[in-house]
């Protein structure tokens, strides 16, 4: 079916006018007259059957409805511009767009990118993040990293590493109030993330203490927020290794019971089957799997 699109030039003018919050500033940016901007906005409003601006004093101000529309249009133009740069004949940059879960991106991938750039100085890696509450795959990327089961019929799947969960705490809190045994966790504050429900219950079952309860539980919406609370000394949490191995090596986190671990989810790199796979992308994928393999070999 053909795309049902409004006039594209009018969309472009509208996006600039909404972003600039001024027809006059939009006219300057687009090298048009004020009247030409007004006509394009009127054309778009007629196409949509919806007013997009209202007059406030001497200015035309976008409605809340129009501002929301403009944000989506802006993202679409960014996507088109990125595709034009990547697939145009004059494109010369070696860019890899990686989309990964927020915690994995911040705690595992990004700390290792300096090593990649040292090996491949001409390749730029652009990292965007996804939350566990978002759809599994969306947006524009060359490589998506996900954990857990993925319906990957449209993707080449490259295994990375499997997480295992254990208790984590800040070294400072541990030095101030060390625990003699797992049972002493009942005297502590536990931290938990809504995106990783059941981690404490599963780990305690593995540790043979299913009935243990804490002094208090503090809950956070995402695990990377929970981890920051751990690093700030608010309490104990159950965290994934080797995703957090760099923080443990840098002594930002401490694993007091390293021999009591629970098997977790596996990470995979997903590459669209119908996309170009230039040499620099393959170099990145080989490097990514080698990094994951080193973590698996260390077991932490």
Q: How is this structure best summarized?
A:
By secondary structure, the protein is α/β, with parallel strands linked by helices. The protein has helices at residues 8-20, 23-30, 34-48, 64-87, 102-119, 171-176, 199-206, 223-231, 245-249, 279-298; strands at 53-56, 59-62, 94-101, 123-130, 143-147, 155-168, 189-193, 216-220, 237-241, 262-272. The strands form three sheets. Strands 4-3-5-10-6-9 form a six-stranded mixed β-sheet, sandwiched between helices.
Q: What's the topology here?
A:
Blueprint: H1 8-20, H2 23-30, H3 34-48, E1 53-56, E2 59-62, H4 64-87, E3 94-101, H5 102-119, E4 123-130, E5 143-147, E6 155-168, H6 171-176, E7 189-193, H7 199-206, E8 216-220, H8 223-231, E9 237-241, H9 245-249, E10 262-272, H10 279-298
Parallel strand pairs: 3-4, 3-5, 7-8
Antiparallel strand pairs: 1-2, 5-10, 6-9, 6-10
Helix pairs in contact: 1-2, 1-3, 1-4, 2-3
Q: How would you describe this protein?
A:
- By secondary structure, this protein is α/β, with parallel strands linked by helices.
- It has three domains: 8-87, Winged helix-like DNA-binding domain superfamily/Winged helix DNA-binding domain (Arc Repressor Mutant, subunit A); 94-162 and 265-298, Periplasmic binding protein-like II (D-Maltodextrin-Binding Protein, domain 2); 164-264, D-Maltodextrin-Binding Protein, domain 2, CATH 3.40.190.
- 42% of the residues lie in helices and 23% in strands.
- The protein is built from ten helices and ten strands.
- It has helices spanning 8-20, 23-30, 34-48, 64-87, 102-119, 171-176, 199-206, 223-231, 245-249, 279-298, and strands spanning 53-56, 59-62, 94-101, 123-130, 143-147, 155-168, 189-193, 216-220, 237-241, 262-272.
- The strands form three sheets. A six-stranded mixed beta sheet has the order 4-3-5-10-6-9, sandwiched between helices. A two-stranded antiparallel ribbon has the order 1-2.
């Amino acid at each position: 079916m053909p795309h049902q699109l409004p006039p594209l030039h009018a969309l472009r003018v509208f996006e600039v006018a909404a972003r600039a919050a001024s027809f006059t500033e939009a006219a300057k940016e687009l090298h048009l007259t004020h009247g030409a901007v007004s006509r394009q906005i009127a054309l778009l409003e007629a196409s949509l059957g919806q007013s997009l601006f209202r007059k406030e004093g001497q200015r035309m101000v976008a409605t809340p409805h129009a501002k929301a529309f403009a944000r989506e249009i802006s993202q679409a133009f960014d996507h088109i511009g990125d595709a034009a740069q990547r697939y145009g004949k004059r494109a010369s940059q070696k860019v890899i767009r990686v989309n990964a879960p927020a915690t994995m991106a911040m705690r595992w991938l990004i700390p290792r990118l300096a090593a990649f750039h040292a090996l491949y100085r001409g390749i730029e890696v652009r990292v965007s993040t996804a939350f566990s509450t978002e759809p599994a795959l969306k947006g524009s990327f060359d490589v998506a990293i996900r954990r857990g089961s993925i319906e990957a019929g449209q993707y080449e799947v490259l295994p990375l590493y499997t997480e295992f969960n254990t208790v984590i705490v800040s070294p400072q809190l541990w030095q101030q109030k060390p625990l003699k045994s797992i049972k002493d966790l009942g005297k502590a504050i536990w931290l938990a993330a809504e995106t990783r429900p059941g981690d404490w219950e599963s780990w305690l079952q593995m540790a043979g203490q299913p009935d243990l309860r804490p002094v208090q539980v503090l809950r956070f919406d995402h695990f990377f927020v929970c981890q920051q609370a751990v690093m700030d000394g608010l309490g104990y949490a159950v965290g994934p290794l080797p995703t957090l191995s760099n923080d443990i090596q840098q002594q930002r986190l401490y694993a007091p019971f390293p021999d009591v671990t629970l098997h977790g989810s596996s990470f995979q790199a997903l590459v669209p089957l119908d996309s170009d796979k230039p040499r620099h992308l393959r170099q990145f994928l080989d490097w990514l799997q080698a990094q994951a393999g080193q973590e698996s070999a260390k077991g932490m």
